[in-house]
Amino acid sequence: MTGINRLKSRTRADYRYILEYRTRWSDNDMYDHMNNSIYNFLYDSIINTYLIEHCGLNPPASPQYGMVVHSHNDYFASISFPACAELALRVNKIGNSSVTYEIALFEKGQEAAKSVGEFVQVFVDRATGRPNANGMSPTLRRGLEKILVENHTSKL
Questions:
Q1: Which of 86, 113, 137, 146 has its CA 20 to 30 A from that of 25?
Q2: How far apart are CA 146 and CA 15, in angstroms?
Q3: What are the strands, taking DSSP E only, across 23-112?
Q4: 57-to-20, 101, 129, 130 alpha-carbon distances in Å
Q5: Pick from 29, 41, 31, 119: which is nearest to 85 by CA?
């Protein structure tokens, strides 16, 4: 199965964390579907919600925070207001100070993924803006390991 077909075949069961999002009228663009920029907004939102709820992140005060160094998205079908979206999150890889997330967007009540994206974050020290020589904090790493998918097959 090719990489794109593998992503298209993803189901909610392939992910470890789900977050519901009620689309808004302003999410639609002139083509009557959710604007591409909203996908990135939602992907960033599910990641940070997970980091706050499960990894001890306190955005204004944590000694480390994640900087997005890479992102992309593959679109398969559109979604539009007033649909309810379900965002699904997993971790595909954890490095010393980096993490690779995979995020899928589903429409509630439909099985096929509307899109699948990837974000790579590098966790940096607040004081220096650089990765810590010792890597990410143990609390952060433990939280991310909870949604790590072992032996995943990369799309590339």
A1: 113
A2: 11
A3: 64-75, 84-94, 98-107
A4: 20, 16, 16, 17
A5: 41
DSSP 8-state secondary structure symbol assigned to residue 45? H
The CATH fold of domain 3-145: Thiol Ester Dehydrase; Chain A (3.10.129)
pLDDT at 9: 85
Residue 145 belongs to what H/E stretch? helix 138-145
The pLDDT of residue 153 is above 60: no
Phi then psi dihedrals of residue 44, to 5 deg:
-60, -40
Enter the pTM of the model: 0.91
3-state secondary structure of 140: helix
